[in-house]
Amino acid sequence: MTKPFQNPDQPARLVVINAGVSDPSSTRLLADRIAQQSLDRLSAAGLTTSLAIIDLAPLAVDIAKAIVAGFPGEKVQAAIDTLAGADAIIAATPVYKAGMSGLFKSFIDLVDNDLLIAKPVILAATAGTARHAMVADEQLRPLFAFLRAVPVPTSIFAAPEDWGAPELGTRIERAAIELTQFVASGVGRAITNAAWDGYQHQFGGNAAAAERSAADVNFDTDLMRLAAGGTTRS
Amino acid sequence: MQFGIFSVSDVTRNPLTGTTPSEAQRIDAIGQIAKRADEVGLDVFAIGEHHNPPFFSSSPTTLLAHIAARTERIILSTSVTLITTNDPVKIAEDYAMLQHLAKGRVDLMLGRGNTVPVYPWFGQDIRNGVALALENYNLLHKLWRDDVVDWQGKFRKPLQGFTAIPRPLDDVPPFVWHGSIRTPEIAEQAAYYGNGYFANNVLAPNFHFLPLVNFYRERFEHYGHGSKEQAIVGLGGHAFIARNSQDAYERFRPFFEGNPIYGSSYGLEEYAKNTPLSVGSPQEIIDKTLSFREAFGDYQRQLWVVDAMGLPLEVALEQVELLGTEVVPVLRREMAARRSPGAAPAPTHQSLVTAKYGDAPARQPTPNPNRGDNLTGARPYQDTDLGVAAKLPLVG
């Protein structure tokens, strides 16, 4: 029972997930540059935009508590709701010990499997050395593949030397153009609208199109027939 | 509306004394808790089913039969009976037997259970959990209603010409609640059969279970059992009560913070504010419970956990006492005052007997003679419907 996802007349909602913890944080700086470039490109494409930033550092304790308790508190729930409403995402993490930050992964561990389906994402990572250059593609990309999100072709990685190199700006531009094309074409929305029933969902979940009442539920399944006194003999 | 207590039967270290009760002590204690609940006028006592330490209740019907013999009025129930890993044939027999012994003071709540290894220990696969629950209940429903059952399903060996004995008391099956915290298929089954739906209302944010409860209400109406507001809804909860709020928090804190499930996440105040956990004076427990009704609509059964987290027996008994004397009498009054005239009363054996027979006498199944092969054939009872043609298994 597919239902329309978002009103195309509404602004394109860009959401940044920032796992950088210092202030100022180079991860947040990178995310801001990507966000600004993306907003400019989206505007140039004739779209109205809005931007929300989820800084994970102030949520660190709440995220840990949510993992242990099995359910999020108010602040983490608000972050999840913001993410559920995103039309495009910028996911930015520092590299610690050759991998994405534990805080970043812990936050992602709290989102429903269907929360980010077909949402375009720019993957971004910062590190103290260029040796970690593949973390975005080798760790973030598979993670977002599991979530059935749509990472854009260009990931952004910044080591200290990149902050003085014009090529970083070029890559950011490229990623922003890619993201803009995904958003402007509405392909994420089209995929979700066409294929939503084919993914597994949790009743009452956080996804924008989660089933919340009988009108949303598909009763034409083996289990629903069994629930209504029928049989399955496969 | 019914009010009572439910226990998961945990055997937990008392963080104040550092000692853990033995299984023997906890089994003895739960009998005393149930007895006190009966004495102070609570309506329901329910016990869980587990098959691993640190829990003690593996055999709810044995325990409940014992409690039935020691109590007068209280309804005995489960929280939950595992509909996935138990043979529905044995559930049909055990709970019908219990129903006779308790003179009808019995119902049960069915659930899938939350302990993964229980499935393989009982020869099942958790990946089939929902399908097992649904199919097993379909069979259980039939076993309690048809004297002679021919049946074939996916999970259990087929049955031919089978009669579950004893037949339910007065030929009226125990009322069934379907417990679920996330699965619309379970709520759908409850709605399809016109059975009750119970949300445990613990370990989750406030009103987290509202979409499922509303789904069940909608489907209950869809299947023609009555309006949405006549659906049979039960809610759990967890309570710690003291004379005043400050004492309640002070006394409960070490048990909450020392608990492996609760103690390492949200603080007690935050947990009590954002989840259905009720800590405080009797008035605070009353107010919080009334907020459940505010959100979920009129409902039929409210149960609280009062004996978990290593609380010593005397404290658990005090909780039961405070519920029975200070909280529930006010809640009965306040809930009744707010109740919509259309809301259904809570089902009891007596109400089900009346619904089935009116003023006529209830059926009392009386077997036909043994044919010499320890069977009574296609007509097991003297009044069995002649239209039933059982397919008996071929032997030899």
TrEMBL record, chain A:
Pfam families: FMN_red (PF03358). Residues 13-163 form the NADPH-dependent FMN reductase-like domain. One of its GO terms (molecular function) is oxidoreductase activity. It comes from the Bacteria. The keyword NAD does not apply. Keywords: Flavoprotein, FMN, Oxidoreductase. Belongs to the SsuE family. NCBIfam families: LLM_duo_CE1759. PANTHER family: FMN REDUCTASE (NADPH) (PTHR43408:SF2). This is NADH-dependent FMN reductase.
Automatic annotation (TrEMBL), chain B:
Residues 358-382 are annotated as: Disordered. Signal peptide: none annotated. Keywords: Monooxygenase, Oxidoreductase. Pfam families: Bac_luciferase. The keyword Oxidoreductase applies. GO terms for cellular component: cytosol. Residues 1-271 form the Luciferase-like domain. It comes from the Bacteria. InterPro entries: Bact_Lucif_Oxidored, LLM_FMN-dep_put, Luciferase-like_dom, Luciferase-like_sf. One of its GO terms (molecular function) is monooxygenase activity. This is 5,10-methylene tetrahydromethanopterin reductase. It comes from Devosia insulae DS-56.
